[in-house]
Design brief:
7 strands
């Protein structure tokens, strides 16, 4: 009997911690605290109706993990943690579990010791001059723990703790539904009107994997900024379009008026005084300059001189010179054109500087202007040209010679230019204008170190029938590339000489390239009856390759 009583007594004492802390135990602890030199709390109550701060500290020192609340928003959990830490002076942790932010005391004991679920609430501050009503418990937004985290005995002891004063903990009776915490509502301000914070309800639908919403904020502001920018650009485009339409209409009207006024001036019906009011306005001055240039294109002799004199008298030439010395290339081009059409040479130095500009359009406009403004040596600028003279520039200059009937100089003077592109232009102009007196200079150009110049010189010599260059071509053949060799054989066919037959037969015999062999046979055929006899003799030889090539060349159905 005594052994059975001892066993029951031991089981009773062992189950006491799991059943929760009884009222007597809390009173005993409070009594012990009161006997010591600790500050006296404002309210000392017994568990489960009232619990002092010291009592809650005593629970925290026990072998328990205490859950003080669970919230869906981290801000609420942080507020509760800060208040409990300030009030209790112990460590309070927040654990994110199952999508909830749970406030724990002794969180390191979770899973190793019983867990007491004590949701707490803080009453709203009383209005000044009034006292809060008794036995009012604020509703708290708490959720029950999962079954594996809370034991059945500890759930029986779970209570809602209320902190009406810094030193007092009041424990309400357990209830099935716990009232949510009434947090103070924040008023919407202009500063956070468009800001998306993680406490906003519409953001709780999305899982950001622990990342901040700064990217969402940036995207929203980017969209708003893009929309505002689009509206501003639309307004600016519409206003600019309207302005351009007005300027176009005004310009067309002024051009018609100024054209009639210029014609009257040229025929002596009006004087220069009628242009004075126009020249006082910058926009109208520019329109007048453009109209005078358009009219000057079709003028020659005295009329052109009279219009140029009016241009100077109105000091419009100063505007053109100022543009010619501008740092902007498009203004320079406009100034060069105006000065060229009006025959004003005051900015020729700037035009020579622009000959070697990086801008190809500026270089071409400077070349055209210098051709117009030169009295005798229209192509003297070629001696100052250092940059490559493009094929487009060469074609433009050639058209300028034809259209304006510019005197053609002797282009052989530029065959010794250090600029290979200038030499090539000179060779093309020699061929274009059939300047046969340049044959000795062309023969020297055959040996130019630039293979492009050498090849073009071979073509020009063949086109102009410069037979004195045949010996030079024969000697230079073995030192040239394939293209130049092909041009040499073609040029020998353009100016057939029987003295070259042996060389051409050697090309036919030694060369493996079919095109070279065909051109050599053509050159032999162009030598007349002697050439045909030589080909017939070759065709009767044992070399069948020769037979095929000769038959091909002599077949009149092909050529």
């Amino acid at each position: 009997m005594r052994k059975l009583f001892t066993i029951l007594l031991s089981v009773t004492f062992s189950l006491t911690p799991l059943a929760g802390i009884t009222e007597d135990a809390v009173i005993a602890e409070v009594s012990d605290l009161n006997e010591k030199s600790l500050p006296e709390p404002s309210v000392v109550s017994t568990f489960p109706t009232e619990l002092t701060v010291e009592g809650l500290i005593s629970l925290a020192n026990g072998n328990y993990s205490l859950q003080m609340g669970a919230f869906a928003r981290s801000r609420y959990a942080e507020n509760l943690r800060d208040k409990l830490t300030a009030m209790l002076g112990i460590k309070v942790d927040i654990i994110n579990e199952s999508g909830l932010y749970k406030v724990f005391i002794n969180s390191d004991l979770i899973g190793n010791a019983p867990c007491l679920f004590i949701p707490v609430s803080f009453p709203e501050p009383a209005i000044k001059g009034t006292e809060p009503p008794e036995n009012v418990v604020q509703k708290t937004d708490t959720l029950a723990l999962p079954p594996e985290a809370v034991s059945e005995d500890s759930m029986k002891q779970a209570s809602v703790v209320e902190f009406p004063a810094p030193d007092t903990t009041m424990v309400a009776n357990p209830a099935t539904e716990v009232a949510p915490v009434q947090m103070p509502k924040e008023k919407r301000k202009l500063s956070n009107l468009f800001l998306l914070k993680d406490e906003k309800p519409w953001l709780n639908r999305f899982n950001y994997f622990g990342k901040s919403v700064a990217l969402v904020n940036a995207l929203i502001f980017t969209i708003i900024a893009s929309f505002v920018t689009m509206i501003i650009l639309l307004v600016v485009i519409l206003l600019n379009r309207r302005r351009m339409e007005k300027e176009t209409g005004l310009r067309q009207y002024l051009l018609e008026q100024y054209q009639a006024l210029i014609i009257d001036y040229l025929f002596g019906n009006t004087g220069s005084a009628a242009f004075r009011p126009i020249a006082s306005n910058n926009y109208r001055r520019q329109v007048l300059i453009d109209q005078m240039i358009d009219v000057s294109v079709n003028l020659k002799g005295d009329s052109e001189e009279k219009l140029s004199r009016l241009y100077r008298e109105l000091e419009l030439n100063k505007d053109s010179i100022q543009r010619a010395y501008s740092h902007k290339w498009h203004k320079k081009i406009k100034g060069f054109r105006e000065l060229a059409f009006m025959g004003i040479k005051d900015a020729n130095d700037e035009m020579y500087k622009s000959l070697n500009s990086w801008n190809e359009i500026l270089r071409m406009e400077a070349q055209i202007a210098l051709v117009h403004l030169s009295d005798k040596n229209h192509f003297d600028f070629l001696s100052h040209l250092e940059r490559p003279f493009s094929l487009w520039e060469q074609m433009t200059l050639h058209d300028l010679i034809i259209q304006h009937e510019i005197p053609v100089p002797e282009f052989k003077r530029w065959l010794t230019s250090p600029n290979p592109t200038v030499v090539m232009f000179a060779l093309r102009m020699i061929r274009e204008f059939n300047q046969r007196d340049a044959e000795p200079d062309v023969r020297i150009a055959l040996l130019h170190r630039d293979h492009r110049v050498s090849q073009l010189a071979v073509q020009v010599a063949g086109d102009l029938d410069m037979r004195s260059s045949l010996d030079t071509m024969k000697r230079m053949y073995k030192f040239q590339g394939y293209n130049c060799c092909l041009e040499i054989v073609k040029s020998m066919g353009k100016m057939p000489e029987q003295s070259m037959m042996g060389f051409l037969k050697l090309v036919l015999d030694k060369e493996d390239d079919v095109q070279l062999q065909i051109e050599a046979v053509k050159a032999i055929e162009n030598m007349g009856e002697e050439g045909v006899k030589a080909l017939v003799k070759i065709m009767k030889s044992e070399y069948k390759n020769y037979n095929i090539i000769v038959r091909h060349v002599l077949d009149r159905r092909i050529y």
